[in-house]
Amino acid sequence: MRKYNTKQRHTILEVFKEHPSKCFSVKDLTDVCPTVGLATVYRTLSVLESEGTIRRYTGTDSDLFKLTDNSDIRHMHIVCRACGDMFHSECSFIGEMEKHLKSEHDFSLDTASTVIYGLCGKCQRGETV
Fold first, then answer.
1. How far apart are CA 34 and CA 118, in angstroms?
2. CA 70 – CA 40 distance, rounded (Å)
3. Helix axes 38-51, 7-18, angle to 10 degrees
4. Is the pLDDT of residue 15 over 90?
């Protein structure tokens, strides 16, 4: 299949590049790029994901997409079940968790795909977004 570098695809990719640590839903992208049609957003996300440029994460209400981080930094994703916000955790305990899972359970953890669900501070305090 031929890959087209359209203005719309470029616009969406620039949103990710301008905010490399932020996760976007399809709605977020259509809000930020109102001139890009919904079908184009879905097609572009599919292409960028298949290229490995972005990663898809399953959120509470919708899938979230983030620019792929090719660094060696171990991190996990923390998703708030109430508001759906996704955060990245680069805490030192992640390496310890990997070692524990490997030595005690013979299990290799894919930290780039690991998601922990809970409630963010704002939702715990009842603050509205």
1. 32
2. 26
3. 60
4. yes
Q: Taking a C-beta distance cutoff of 8 angstroms, is the pair 86, 49 a contact?
A: no
Position 57, amino acid:
Y
Distance CA 75, CA 23 (A): 14
Tokens read off for 101: 């899972």
The residues that bridge with 79 in the sheet, in sequence order, are 86, 117
Tokens 């963010």: give the residue: 120
pLDDT in tens, 24-62: 889 999 999 999 999 999 999 999 988 888 888 776 677
What the chain holds in terms of domains, given with CATH numbers, is: 7-67 (1.10.10.10), 76-120 (3.30.1490.190)
Map residue 66 onto helix, strand or coil: strand
